[in-house]
């Protein structure tokens, strides 16, 4: 049986020890487009070590900065075809501002497995602590496996974010670079889908596409700059679903609705007028 929820749910995925330095943070920020105006004081918070502040989405790359092989999708109670898998959603909650350098341990588990009928959704949760075992952040992600449903599990919640019936409170456009994916892949994800034209065509795309987690970071920064004065330390959590691909060089249009300390977010490709992130929620202080 490809998926056995009785074995999978709660399964321990082990521990990973890792470290990072200011140069890793700087590279990540450049990889998501920071520094477009190199004399802007807000941009320098992301790109200059003097007052460097870490955008919480850095948590998505920190444990794998020096891991260059694609991750395995073989877990206890789960044996599925990697070709059928796409990244469904990503969330990061920081328990305090991420330091610009540090050593940490990540402890992962399978939090849940949902049976959507024609597909399965596998939810992973990772708790990250520092050397003193003090919590740094919690990351939660889901992968969507086409054709792997029907195993008799719970359907799970929809987690749909209902937007207010009004125009967005703020909208911002963010250009991406034609070489954005080539730069971002230096943060650890060397999947050829983001660099090799022939590989991308074989996968059904006209050209290499941008990493979903790069889009996730670009939009997190756009909302932080637009609504929080460009201060990453004010971000407490950021979650979103991946709704479509981005072609490097496209412009992203991010729309934001304010609900107290919650910012509801969607992002579209301007050139193709299609959604790329949906159900986004950024919580701030």
Q: Quick summary of this structure?
A:
The protein is an alpha+beta fold and 285 residues long. It has 6 helices and 12 strands.
- Determine the N-to-C terminus distance: 46 Å
Shape verdict? globular
**What's the count of strands?**
12
* Proportion of residues in β-strands: 35-45%
From N to C, what is the helix and strand string? HEHHEEEEEEEHHHEEEE
Average predicted confidence as pLDDT: 93
**Contiguous uncertain segments of 5+ residues:** none
- SSE class: alpha+beta
Largest beta-sheet details: 10 strands, antiparallel
Strand order of the largest sheet: 1-5-6-7-4-9-12-11-10-8
Radius of gyration based on Cα positions: 18 Å
Q: Figure out the total of helices.
A: 6
Helix content: 10-25%
Please outline the helices and strands.
Blueprint: H1 5-8, E1 12-20, H2 22-31, H3 41-47, E2 74-75, E3 78-79, E4 85-94, E5 102-115, E6 119-130, E7 135-146, E8 170-175, H4 180-184, H5 197-202, H6 212-227, E9 235-242, E10 251-259, E11 262-269, E12 274-284
Antiparallel strand pairs: 1-5, 2-3, 4-7, 4-9, 5-6, 6-7, 8-10, 9-12, 10-11, 11-12
Question: How would you characterize the overall build of this protein?
Answer:
This protein has 285 residues and is α+β, with helices and mostly antiparallel strands. Helices cover 17% and strands 36% of the residues. It is built from six helices and twelve strands. It has helices spanning 5-8, 22-31, 41-47, 180-184, 197-202, 212-227; strands at residues 12-20, 74-75, 78-79, 85-94, 102-115, 119-130, 135-146, 170-175, 235-242, 251-259, 262-269, 274-284. It has a ten-stranded antiparallel sheet with strand order 1-5-6-7-4-9-12-11-10-8. A two-stranded antiparallel sheet has the order 2-3. Strand 6 (119-130) and strand 7 (135-146) form a beta hairpin. It is globular, with a radius of gyration of 18 Å. The model has no long low-confidence stretch (mean pLDDT 93).
């Amino acid at each position: 049986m490809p998926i056995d929820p009785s074995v999978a749910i709660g399964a321990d995925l082990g521990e990973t020890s890792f470290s990072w330095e200011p140069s890793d943070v700087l590279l990540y920020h450049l990889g998501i487009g920071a520094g477009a105006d190199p004399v802007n004081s807000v941009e320098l918070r992301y790109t200059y070590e003097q007052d460097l502040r870490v955008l919480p989405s850095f948590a998505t790359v920190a444990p794998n900065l020096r891991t260059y092989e694609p991750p395995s999708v073989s877990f206890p109670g789960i044996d599925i075809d990697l070709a059928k898998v796409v990244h469904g959603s990503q969330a990061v909650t920081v328990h305090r501002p991420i330091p610009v350098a540090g050593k940490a341990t990540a402890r992962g588990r399978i939090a849940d497995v949902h049976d959507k009928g024609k597909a399965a959704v596998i939810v992973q949760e990772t708790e990250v602590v520092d050397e003193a075992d003090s919590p740094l952040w919690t990351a939660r992600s889901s992968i969507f496996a086409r054709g792997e449903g029907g195993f008799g599990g719970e359907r799970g919640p929809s987690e749909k974010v209902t937007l207010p019936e009004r125009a967005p409170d703020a909208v911002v456009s963010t250009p991406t670079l034609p070489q954005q994916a080539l730069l971002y892949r230096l943060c650890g994800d060397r999947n050829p889908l983001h660099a090799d034209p022939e590989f991308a065509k074989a996968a059904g795309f006209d050209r290499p596409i941008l990493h979903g987690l790069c889009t996730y970071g670009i939009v997190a920064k756009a909302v932080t700059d637009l609504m929080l004065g460009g201060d990453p330390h004010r971000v407490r959590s950021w979650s979103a679903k991946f709704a479509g691909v981005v072609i490097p060089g496209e412009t992203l249009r991010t729309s934001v609705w304010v609900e107290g300390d919650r910012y509801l977010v969607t992002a579209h490709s301007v050139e193709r007028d299609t959604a790329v992130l949906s159900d986004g929620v950024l919580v701030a202080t």
